[in-house]
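Checklist before submission:
- one chain only
- standard amino acids only
- sequence pasted in full

Submission:
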Amino acid sequence: MSKMSSGVPDRFAAVSSSGMMAVAFGLVIGLVVGCAPAGPAFNPVSGKVTIGGQLPSGVQVSFYPLDTNKPIASGSIDAATGRYELTSSAGTKGRGKGAVAGKFKVVLNAAAGGGGAPGSPEAMMAQYSGGGKAPAVPKATFPKEYGSASTSPKEVEVKSGQNTIDLEL
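Returned file contents:
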């Protein structure tokens, strides 16, 4: 028979302490996972943009949610193919590849001189890498009304799952 310490045989003490450690570890993991904030579900969104039947050059497309509690999604339009793929914005509303389900206004912006979307780190680097001179702002190659969510006539809906949303503007 094994030795006893505290009135419990050593073999039981070893089992109970390792068992207690497993239970404690499980509780800690459960608390961490259970307390993690659940972000919004992002749905892949891609498609092709044409403006007046032509492929746009130097343009970014953004989806502004009608429900302002949801994140904005944006993507650059490839000048050679007109294809885009959305990524949702950062901040308190979430960041992810795609967009959350819901209705959106389509907004177009001129992309900064090959350096990325306006305000992006790439655009800022391009602006300040030319000896203090800001690059020329490209002219918009789309109707002015698409420059703002409040004036854009185009509304789209993102659904759960994969979305292909072609935009003929």
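Reviewer check: The chain has two helices and twelve strands.
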